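We include the entry.

. . .
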Amino acid sequence: MIGRVAHVEFAGPGSALLTAPLTWGQRAIWEAIVRTAPDDRYFNFGRVLKVPGSRTVAEVCTALAALVERHGAFRTTMSDALRTTMSDAFRTMPAEPYGRAEPYQRLAEKGRLPIEVTTEDPDRVLDELAARPFDYFGEWPLRVALVLDGDRVAHVVLVFCHLAADGLGAAAALRDLRMLLLRGPGARLPGAAQPLDLARWQAGPEGRRAAETAAAHWEREYRRIPPTMFAAPSGSPAEPPVWRALLRSPALELAVRSIAAAHAASTSTVLLTAVTELVGRFTGHETCAVLPISANRFRRDTTDIVATMSQEGLFTLDRRGASFAGLLRAAGPAALRAYRSAYHDPADRNRITASAGAERGEPVHPYCCFNDMRFADPGPARCDPAEITAALARTSVTWPMSQDKLNCRFCVHLTTEGVSLTADTRYLSRPDMERYLRELESLLVEAAVG
């Protein structure tokens, strides 16, 4: 990137330094990062904000300082701090809440955030900023670049560390930044919920009750599901092992909306059901377990929090002799249970995983994920079967990504681009990845027009 580096000075509210345990969401993504390193750049993500009006570099930096001061997540780093440095608010917690290897989160009151200033294409800048892993212990969890048009800032590029924010947290941050830019210097927004507040709630009585309810679901289901979904070697590993295939299918989109309308379901539930059914067809399992990612923003104080709230829930579906319509009927309540189980303490889940593995004599983990990353469900809508069938001519499959390591074996993502499958080819070969996506399209189109 060609440009210069400026700095934003920030001074947020609170004590000079506060150290606390990780929240459940931070712990979940930290475990994924550790299992994926050194390819953990996989979890970085970014956004580009078109700057409203005409703003100088100084004016945008003032707004960025206010943003970082407002949201403690952006001035929080990981720390190996000992328990003796922790705030009094957390001294009632167990001495080692997550084991000795678990870091803590450290909130800084003051600091300097480096800012790249450039004239390059914003999307290219985003890709460059996201291309390297974060230094979780020594770098602020937010990278920023200002893209100039003349002497004014046209775009702000932000790349987020997943320990600081998830997709909805990033959306809240962009909304706040835009408001700060519109209001101009000196603008202030109402107080916001903070990750440290969340950590305090999760450690308290209400949090523990919620965690115990979720843990009961995991414990019950881990006793009956197959040990893992994709256990057999594919025999055709690629180099590097992890690849992503992206299916762009207007026919699938129309079919999903039509099925949702016919069965009074959400499009997300229709896709989760179809993904799970096909996992069973590819693996031979009659009972399938998939880990859907839940936003976990159902409490009023977490709706707009800038934090990583998303975690895996546990969705199980029994396929024996069921039609797709029958599977959809069962999937509704099963999905509700799964999303409720996503708001869990990873320490409980790790304990249950170890216990189930010991009881069954082999490791238990689905390694099979489903992540609906669309910000809104497009909604049910009955579609003309002829229109769905005609749209099949516009289907395409591309391969946008590959890397050496991933914390999972099979991950389906739903985005506005389409349906992608990221998989470890040691367990699902590249030809089978493409076959899976095309059969997913066929299953849904057949269900919609049949």
Q: What stands out?
A: Residues 430-449 form the longest helix (20 residues).
